[in-house]
Amino acid sequence: MAQYLISVLDDTTGSATEAEMAAIGEFNERLRADGHWVFAGGLAAPETATVVDARDGNPVFTDGPYVETKEYVGGFWIVEAPDFDVALPLAALASQRCNRRVELRPFLTA
Amino acid sequence: MTDIGEALTRVHREEWARVVATLARRIGDLDVAEEMTAEAFAAAVERWSADGVPPNPGAWLTTVAYRRAVDRIRRESRREDKHREALMLTDVPEPLGVIDDDRLRLIFTCCHPALAMEARVALTLRLVGGLTVPEIARAYLVQEAAMSRRITRAKTKIKAAGIPYRVPSREDLPARVTGVLAVLYLVFNEGYLASDPDKEAVRADLTGEAIRLTRLVRTLLPDDHEVTGLLALMLLTEARRPARVSATGELVVLAEQDRSAWDRDLIAEGHALVRACIAAGRPPGRYQILAAINAVHTDARDARDTDWSQVAALYDHLVRVDPSPIVRLNRAVAVAELDGPQVALAEVDGLPLEGYHAYHATRAELLRRIGRGGEAREAYERAIELAGNSAETAYLKRRRDQLGTG
Asked: Which end of chain A is more exposed for a tag (fewer CB within 10 A), N or C?
């Protein structure tokens, strides 16, 4: 089994509509029922981010996202699938249900 | 010695894809499969020169490549999965022939829709076609290092993303076959009408390779009529190649071609395939209809004998399957012959193809025929600006220059 990150690409700070939320809920139920579910969550707006750099041992905190972009990750799923051809239609369904573009990316395998 | 050389060329053509495909399935690594297959062919040059060609060259190559792959993986992954290693070592090579669909797995993996189109083309030519990286780089006028990176990147993605090595499920199959055919047709078209002005107008290496690979896919998927249709389309197009570019390097359009120079064998084969598709009685897809249109054209011994009503009817059918503006543009050429250039022009005008050279070339011809010389000239100028192929540019310039005297 491999794990994949499905990140939701967003360009508005408005959160999902009620209809989108309902569709996402149904999709999540389906992921659980079919054994693909690992984790999922929506993220707060990028302005709420804090960049932390403690590489030299002295943490420095910066208010805001690490890079200003028009698009950002608004939420994500982590799904489990035997291979890419199983994960790909899940990503397509995820995009349809949350009504946004998504990026499908494999986790490194040990 | 030359016998060995010829034998090797033939075996390379016939066995390369099979050896890579078998190895890829057994060891689960495209990269190693490719490299060890290349090594096995290099070993064959030496061994066969000394000992002669073995009775079953494919089996010889598979065995040599497989042993080397196992050695390599054992050397490199001692710390890794011992179980997998043990499994591989006990896997006795299977006889060739029973595992034909390994090559299909290979083709579907190379043409996976999650890979960029240019990566699919490069991977298919390398892993299925057996072309070397320098050969592919030359064909696409790309630096060798860049082409090598493109192929490596695709192989890395296949591995990291877990793109499976298998024939798609029944419900996914039609869409995936369409994807494979798109790759093959792209290779063919790049050979048939190179898009780059610095390249030769027609490159038989790519058209030949596309036909060879399509024949292979047809062997593997004999019941898919779109595969048959694409093969017929390629053969009927390739048949006209000897008449397509003049001695001075100018494109010769269909109506002006010396039809006695057409390859009669390819036409006969193409027509037989089109008949086979029609006999199957299934609703034809895009490639079958295009093949049928080309069958009508190659049926006419003289351009004036062309059955334009049949061509137009086939384009009507194609518009229903594929209502793209390019199909409508091509349909208009048949309409011009049937109902006159005025009617055709009305259909062409307003198609959203401003950036497409053939749109302006078609308009130019129609405008010329109805005596609107000034507008025709403008349309030729625009077509010349946009055309990438050197032979086509030469043809368009001559047509433009003829306007003054007409």
From this structure: C
The verdict on B145 touching A (C-beta cutoff 8 Å) is: no
B162 CB neighbours in chain A (<8 A) are 2, 81-84, 87, 106
ipTM of the complex: 0.85
B/e letters for A69-88, b = 16+ CB within 10 Å, e = fewer, are: eeebebbbbbbbbebbbbbb
Query: B377 CA to chain A: closest CA distance, Å?
Result: 45
Same domain for B190 and B109: yes
Dump pLDDT digits (tens) for B185-216: 999 988 887 666 666 666 778 899 999 999 99
Judged by CB atoms closer than 8 Å, whether chains meet at B162 and A88 is answered as no
Q: Which residue in chain B is spatially nearest to A110 when comparing CA positions?
A: B80
> Does B80 share its domain with B109?
no
Model confidence at B56: pLDDT above 50: yes
What is the sign, positive or negative, of the torsion defined by CA atoms of B84, B31, A7, B177?
Answer: negative
Q: CA B262 → CA A100, B143, B165, distances in Å?
A: 52, 35, 41
Q: What is the CATH number of the domain that holds A64?
A: 3.30.70.1060
Contacts of A84 in chain B (CB under 8 A): 114, 161-164
**Segments forming the whole domain that contains residue A16:** 2-106
